[in-house]
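Priority: medium. Attachment 1 of 2:
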């Protein structure tokens, strides 16, 4: 079983910055992809960014050039640096990891609120 603990988030003004982190713990064999999703009120959960073990990244078009995802494989931690925040970035952000121990299983964090005021 893998547990994810998120930290960061909060309230920031338009144009500001926030950082999120998510640490995985428990019985870990191999973590494949790590990433972040977000869900705004009344909307579906959407991918924000993900990063592979080798460091390849993928971003939603809406955050390209503003958000940066990174990971520390030794610490089983993924980070999301969010700059130039906009009110439309307001959402609950969830981290996830794709874990392999004979089969791939996705684990999710509890979610952290990011609110961008105009």
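Attachment 2 of 2:
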């Amino acid at each position: 079983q893998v547990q994810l603990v998120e930290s960061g988030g909060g309230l920031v003004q338009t144009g500001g910055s926030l950082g999120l982190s998510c640490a995985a713990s428990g019985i870990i064999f191999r973590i494949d992809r790590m990433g972040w999703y977000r869900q705004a009120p009344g909307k579906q959960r959407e991918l924000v960014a993900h990063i592979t073990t080798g460091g390849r990244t993928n971003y939603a078009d809406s955050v390209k050039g503003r958000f940066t995802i990174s990971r520390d494989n030794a610490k089983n931690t993924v980070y999301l640096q969010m700059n130039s925040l906009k009110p439309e970035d307001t959402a609950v952000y969830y981290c996830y990891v794709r874990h392999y121990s004979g089969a791939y299983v996705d684990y999710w964090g509890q979610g952290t609120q990011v609110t961008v005021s105009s």
